[in-house]
């Protein structure tokens, strides 16, 4: 193993790791927003909205995230959407993650016992009040863990933006593999950083899950 | 620039051929991930510590890093140690191993959840522990996780797009070839997306059929 | 070498979990063709004793012998595994919850072990499955999966599965306890048929009527010891010990 080389290039990997983290945070936020909207649409009273939500989920979960990214980044200019690679990465991956999070959020909400809503309505709460005061607080607690799984997948999916030349961890590893012919060393550098990010995120999710759990 | 879908027919056969390669690599990698997943699960649960621990480390690394990075490692790493595999084979190995690890996690949980009475009944008939695992416990565990394994295989189809970056001429790379000739990325990536979507629907249909068929033997 | 009345021998069986003693120095001889019922309250150790006979629960002390061979012989691990697998082929067992293999049809449940362990060909195994399933009245359901069978049918297939190994001894661990009352009869009938064929059987049961009508001997166990044993007329008709009387009275109340 070429330790010298690894020592020489690791600062570039560290810098790239920050890009991966930033990308993950922004993508997660956009994903959550899309997921919340998607779930609201899927659970709506209006058939047209439900259909729209279902179509969103089906299409974005039914095709590769890489292709979605390519359509946005390379095909976007043809329909008047000019984005730089980083922006395209965040938007493309965020909308994709949102489709998965839609199902997570919806799943948590519909798993809350019907009796809860009925009890709230019996007390005189409106449909809306029952949802915000009774259903959502319970569902939100149930969401933490599965959303953590979505987040884990999302962090790994940020590697895809290497294919549109965003200088994050995988792109950096790929570039140095090309220039140094040391794939194992470069994999090790990038891999360790990914595992740190994913491990730390996982711990954070577990902490949050414990904190909000009703025992 | 606008959109012009009339360029598609001329390159349709290129993209269709790519489609076939995507199906081929998905099926091959799905088989690797299925049987590899069973093997990994049994090793992770029952092998002696000297074998088990390295396998666990392997699992940990594969679950903690992106598939794309793993593909680079396998493709370029094997070249470095003198094994020059065709991109297709490297892709099958990479995709197959990646999903084998996820399948293994599912199967391990399922093995531990098989009723203790099943092992007892098999041992009572005179089967050894290994025979009982092979004929009785593992087949039941695998049946129990067929639905999530099916989901993994559908995820595998979509992740098969990544092997385009190591030069496998599957659907995504075929679309890129057509784009290289026409400068029409939107049209051809959309076409590729449509094909992926259709294959995806096909796999979901097969998944439902298999689930219905095994429901009786669970 | 083997006297007819010690076909099965349990000598000073002892078992404890930590400080809890579940079997306290139990000895029992069963003659070839004899049918012994073990009754007693839950937690009395009757199931543990039964499961010790084929070493599903290992004894902490004492010996089990079948037809002149010690079942729980002290051997190095590998040799012991081989030995116990051979012994278990000779000891059929039927469980309370059937433990049929859900991923196999009735036929496959019956033929799996004989094919695997006795090298039967597919034709031989099929003939065997038909013979054994016919015996328990399940021939029409031969290609059904367990999920398509009632509890009583499952238990009959489970008996056929055990019989297909041509065991010298059959163990029944509360074979009818998990069944709906209307399904108990069909399983009891199969067991009666085995009795008529002079199969050696040890039956843990809570069905006093069945024990009285089928068994040659009844053992009443409580708190890890055999409190009383004898022919059914004596144990049920004229019990000698207070504990036996109390138990039987309670059982009788519950069934009425």
From TrEMBL, chain A:
Gene Ontology process terms (BP): amino acid transport
The keyword Membrane is annotated on this UniProt entry: yes
UniProt-annotated location(s): Cell inner membrane; Cell membrane
SUPFAM superfamilies: MetI-like
Membrane-topology annotation of the record: Multi-pass membrane protein
Example of a GO MF term: transmembrane transporter activity
InterPro entries recorded: AA_ABC_transptr_permease_3TM, ArtM/GltK/GlnP/TcyL/YhdX-like, MetI-like, MetI-like_sf
Domain of life: Bacteria
Domain ABC transmembrane type-1 intervals: 17-205
Keywords: Amino-acid transport, Cell membrane, Membrane, Transmembrane, Transmembrane helix, Transport
Main location: membrane
Annotated Gene Ontology cellular component terms: ATP-binding cassette (ABC) transporter complex
Transmembrane spans: 16-39, 51-74, 153-172, 184-202
Similarity annotation: Belongs to the binding-protein-dependent transport system permease family. HisMQ subfamily.
Record protein name field: Nickel transporter
Organism, as annotated: Marivita geojedonensis
UniProtKB/TrEMBL annotation, chain B:
TM segment ranges: 20-46, 58-79, 85-102
InterPro entries, alphabetized: AA_ABC_transptr_permease_3TM, ArtM/GltK/GlnP/TcyL/YhdX-like, MetI-like, MetI-like_sf
Main location: membrane
Keywords linked to the UniProt accession: Amino-acid transport, Cell membrane, Membrane, Transmembrane, Transmembrane helix, Transport
PROSITE patterns: ABC_TM1
GO molecular function term, any single one: transmembrane transporter activity
Family, as annotated: Belongs to the binding-protein-dependent transport system permease family. HisMQ subfamily.
Domain ABC transmembrane type-1: 19-207
GO cellular component: ATP-binding cassette (ABC) transporter complex
GO process annotations (BP): amino acid transport
Pfam families xrefs: BPD_transp_1
Lineage summary: Bacteria, Pseudomonadati, Pseudomonadota, Alphaproteobacteria, Rhodobacterales
Protein's membrane topology: Multi-pass membrane protein
Subcellular localization: Cell inner membrane; Cell membrane
Name under which the protein is recorded: Amino acid ABC transporter permease
Automatic annotation (TrEMBL), chain C:
Keyword Nucleotide-binding (UniProt): yes
Keywords associated with the record: Amino-acid transport, ATP-binding, Cell membrane, Membrane, Nucleotide-binding, Transport
Record membrane topology: Peripheral membrane protein
Location (main, coarse): membrane
Single GO MF annotation: ABC-type amino acid transporter activity
Keyword Oxidoreductase belongs to the record: no
PROSITE patterns for this protein: ABC_TRANSPORTER_1 (PS00211), ABC_TRANSPORTER_2 (PS50893)
Pfam families linked: ABC_tran (PF00005)
InterPro entries in the record: AAA+_ATPase, ABC_ATPase_HisP-typ, ABC_transporter-like_ATP-bd, ABC_transporter-like_CS, MetN_ABC_transporter-like, P-loop_NTPase
GO cellular component: plasma membrane
Gene3D superfamilies (alphabetical): P-loop containing nucleotide triphosphate hydrolases
UniProt superkingdom: Bacteria
Subcellular location: Cell membrane
Segments forming domain ABC transporter: 8-248
The family this protein is said to belong to: Belongs to the ABC transporter superfamily.
Name of this chain's protein: Amino acid ABC transporter ATPase
Source organism of the structure: Marivita geojedonensis
């Amino acid at each position: 193993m070429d330790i010298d080389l690894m020592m020489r290039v690791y600062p570039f990997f560290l810098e790239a790791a920050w890009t991966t983290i930033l990308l993950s945070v922004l993508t997660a936020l956009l994903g959550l927003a899309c997921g919340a909207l998607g779930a609201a649409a899927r659970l709506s009273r209006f058939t047209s909205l439900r259909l729209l939500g279902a179509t969103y989920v089906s299409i974005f979960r039914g095709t590769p995230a890489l292709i979605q990214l390519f359509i946005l980044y390379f095909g976007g200019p043809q329909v008047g959407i000019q984005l730089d690679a980083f922006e395209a990465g965040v938007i493309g991956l965020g909308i994709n993650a949102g489709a998965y999070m839609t199902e997570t959020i919806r799943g948590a909400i519909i798993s809350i016992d019907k009796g809860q809503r009925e009890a709230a309505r019996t007390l005189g709460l409106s449909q809306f009040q029952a949802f915000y005061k009774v259903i959502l607080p319970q569902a939100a607690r149930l969401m933490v863990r599965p959303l953590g799984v979505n987040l884990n997948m999302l962090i790994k999916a940020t590697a895809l933006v290497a294919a549109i030349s965003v200088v994050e961890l995988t792109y950096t590893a790929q570039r140095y593999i090309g220039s140094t012919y040391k794939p194992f060393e470069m994999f090790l550098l990038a891999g360790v950083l990914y595992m740190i990010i994913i491990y730390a995120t996982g711990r954070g999710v577990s902490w949050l899950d414990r904190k909000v759990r009703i025992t | 620039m606008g959109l012009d879908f009339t360029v598609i027919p001329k390159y349709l056969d290129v993209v269709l051929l790519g489609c076939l390669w995507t199906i081929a690599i998905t099926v091959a990698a799905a088989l690797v991930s299925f049987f590899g997943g069973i093997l990994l699960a049994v090793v992770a649960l029952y092998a002696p510590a000297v074998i088990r621990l390295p396998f666990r480390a392997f699992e940990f690394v594969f679950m903690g890093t992106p598939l794309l990075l793993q593909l680079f490692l396998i493709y370029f790493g094997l070249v470095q140690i003198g094994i020059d595999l065709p991109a297709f084979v490297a892709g099958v190995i990479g995709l197959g191993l990646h999903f084998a690890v996820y399948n293994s996690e599912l199967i391990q949980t399922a093995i531990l959840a098989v009723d203790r009475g099943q092992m007892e009944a098999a041992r009572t008939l005179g089967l050894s522990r290994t025979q009982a695992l092979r004929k009785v416990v593992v087949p039941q565990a695998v049946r129990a996780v067929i639905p999530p394994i099916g989901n993994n295989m559908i995820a595998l189809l979509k992740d098969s797009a990544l092997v385009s970056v190591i030069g496998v001429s599957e659907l995504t790379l075929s679309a890129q070839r057509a784009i290289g000739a026409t400068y029409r990325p939107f049209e051809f990536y959309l076409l590729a997306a449509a094909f992926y979507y259709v294959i995806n629907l096909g796999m979901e249909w097969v998944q439902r059929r298999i689930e219905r068929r095994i429901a009786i033997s669970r | 070498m083997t006297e007819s009345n010690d076909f099965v021998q349990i000598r000073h069986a002892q078992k404890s979990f930590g400080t809890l003693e579940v079997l306290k120095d139990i000895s029992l001889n069963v003659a070839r063709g004899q049918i012994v019922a073990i009754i007693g309250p839950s937690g009395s150790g009757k199931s543990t004793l039964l499961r010790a006979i084929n070493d599903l629960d290992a004894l902490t002390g004492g010996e089990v012998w079948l037809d002149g061979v010690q079942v729980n012989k002290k051997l190095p691990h590998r040799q012991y595994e081989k030995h116990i697998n051979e012994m278990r082929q000779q000891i059929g067992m039927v469980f309370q919850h059937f433990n049929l293999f859900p991923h196999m049809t009735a036929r496959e449940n019956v033929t799996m072990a004989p094919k695997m362990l006795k090298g039967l060909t597919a034709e031989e195994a099929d003939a065997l499955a038909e013979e054994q399933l016919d015996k328990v009245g399940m021939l029409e359901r031969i290609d059904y999966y367990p999920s398509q069978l009632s509890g009583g049918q499952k238990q009959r297939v489970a008996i056929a599965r055990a019989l297909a190994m041509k065991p010298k001894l059959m163990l029944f661990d509360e074979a009818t306890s998990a069944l709906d009352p209307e399904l108990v009869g069909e399983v009891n009938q199969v067991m009666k048929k085995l009795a008529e064929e002079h199969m050696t059987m040890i039956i843990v049961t809570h069905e006093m009527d069945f024990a009285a009508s089928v068994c040659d001997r009844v053992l009443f166990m409580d708190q890890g010891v055999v409190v009383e044993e004898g022919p059914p007329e004596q144990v049920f008709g004229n019990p000698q010990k207070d504990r036996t009387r109390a138990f039987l009275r309670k059982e009788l109340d519950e069934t009425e």
